[in-house]
Amino acid sequence: MEEETEEIEKEDISLGESSEGDGDVQKKKKVTFAPETFVTQNPSTSSSIPTSSSSPNVNKRIQGLMNKLNESNIQTMFTTIEELYRENSQREVTKCFCEVFLKSVIQPILIKDKFAMELVMLVTLLHQKIGSEVGFAVLSQLVKKLNELLSSPSYGKGKECDCLLLVISHLYNFKVVQCVLIYDIIRKLLDSLTERDLDLLVLILKTCGMEIRRNDSLALKDVILDIQTKARTLNEDNSSTTPEEQQQQEEDIPMELASSKEAVAEKLDEPTGDDILRTV
After folding, report:
1. Which carries the bigger pLDDT value, residue 187 or residue 110?
2. What domains sit in the chain, N to C, each tagged with a CATH number?
3. Where is the composition biased (Low complexity) (predicted)?
């Protein structure tokens, strides 16, 4: 494998903007962080992702592998990509992998949870075996796209934002990223809580709530209580909502949260990300 050890080009990434205040006077605030802060096994040195176009041959080979991705052939795919790292520039292969990975993740309809987990399992193997700069590069691209979507109306087209959060949540399950990132995303969604934000929060809890509970059950409880409080305030401040609609929303929110908590409880005895990787 060709070694390239240039100094990391640190870049703060924003998790979108939220608004505070009434009427036309609003204060914009951003949540910013350097992505290497949230990647486990932080890279001390790494090559920044090049801006030049990627190699068509490498890109085509990785795309072909992704098209055949399933749990049974992840180890074979990892071995093939490992060979690409030996034969080509590490920066080039990482760039191509990130491009194909993002293309697979960002879809207008919600990708299947199993497919998201398989994508993350492959990233986790590369992160552990090739180097943590791979996890850093993938996370950087995911968060940049997440920031873009959170700053756009309706958070992008269709379920693009949902797909991103599903994959990021699984990266936390597989211990590629740290819990601080998940908490920052939750706080961002709580700050600007709308019905859309509520849907995304429920998705996060259903996907990685069990891991949050394993690591800190009190944190999960606090998150759920915050969502309930913010949702209640949202209904009270929404003057355009009729009393009947407010009542229906107040009935729906506890049901969604209860469904999320049940999903978390059902998954507590399921294998963790580490358990699954041991079988690959």
Report:
1. 110
2. 13-278 (1.25.40.180)
3. 43-56
